[in-house]
Every structure is written in C-alpha cells, then in structure tokens.
Amino acid sequence: MQGDDIADLIGRVALSDRRAFVALYNQTGPKLFSICLRILKDRTEAEEALQEVYISIWQRARSFSVASGSSSAWLAAIARNRSIDALRARKPVADELDTVYDLADAGPDPETQTVTKDEGRRIDTCMEELEADRAVAVKRAYVEGLSYQELADQFGVPLNTMRTWLRRSLLKLRECMER
C-alpha cells in the first residue's frame, strides 16, 4: 500500500469510517507493532502500546495533514511516542528507596575533577616557564618513567648533568606552583 493510500485511509478515519480504520490497521499494524516491540522489548507491553497507538490514531486522525509530512512518518511517530511513554511509565524494580542498592560512583566527584583540571592547567603553565629541553626531560622522567641514564643518553649530556637539570626544574616548578 502506498503512502497516498494510507493518507486516504487516515482521512476516512477522520470521518469516523470504521472500515477505513480496519483497513488502516491491517495495512500498518505489523510495522507499528515492530516499532513498539523494538522500543519496549516485551511482546505484551508492545501489544498494549499498539492498542493505545490505534486509539490515538482514531482520536487524532483529524489533525493529520498531508502537507505536514508523510502518513507513514506520522503513524510511526505516534507508535514511537506511545512506546517511549510506556517505557517511562514502567514501575521501578524497587518499590522503596530503602531496598535499592546504593551504587556509588567510583570516579571523582565534580568538585575533585575541577580541582584536578585546575591543577593540571597550573602545572602546564609552570612547565612553560622552563627551558624547552628541561620541560621535555621532566615530562619524560615523571610522566613516561624514563631513567636518568636514558634521558642523559637521549639528550647527549652526562648523567650528573641530567640529574641537575631535573632537580633544578623541579625546584622551579615547586616555586611556580606555590605562587
């Protein structure tokens, strides 16, 4: 059945034509039922939602306008909305709040997240005050976990020089963070 035929049936339903309503149900019922079933994931609830869909179609057929969109989309929207309403109306598993398990969020709370982000920004700002090679060495040592010897080899400096770079850089970072 074409969209024009469905639109014609909806128009006849708007005039309280029961035969048109039966024909509309026969033509669109399976598709609308599949929409309800996909959303609700329960056959009994989907069947009940489908009944409400067709009651709504009977009551609201006069409001359908071909100019506002396709008839199939209008019907699908009614089925979708009724199914979502049924989903929202489901009774919670626990009748009382006392019987619901307290599920704590393992992650940090919003305040802690904000403080952590602010600290991260402060560290980044302080890292910018270091010389570029010193900042890279600090990141590689304390973020990537490279040893003093590995850093000394990468930068081509003696081991004790690398230790001095890192020590002085950390002192500058501490001083900057305390401001």
TrEMBL record:
Keywords: Sigma factor, Transcription, Transcription regulation. CDD domains: Sigma70_r4. Residues 24-91 form the RNA polymerase sigma-70 region domain. Transmembrane segments: none annotated. One of its GO terms (biological process) is DNA-templated transcription initiation. Pfam families: Sigma70_r2, Sigma70_r4_2. The keyword Cell membrane does not apply. Residues 121-173 form the RNA polymerase sigma factor 70 region 4 type domain. One of its GO terms (molecular function) is sigma factor activity. Belongs to the sigma-70 factor family. ECF subfamily. NCBIfam families: PRK11924.3-2, PRK12514.1, sigma70-ECF. This is RNA polymerase sigma-70 factor (ECF subfamily).
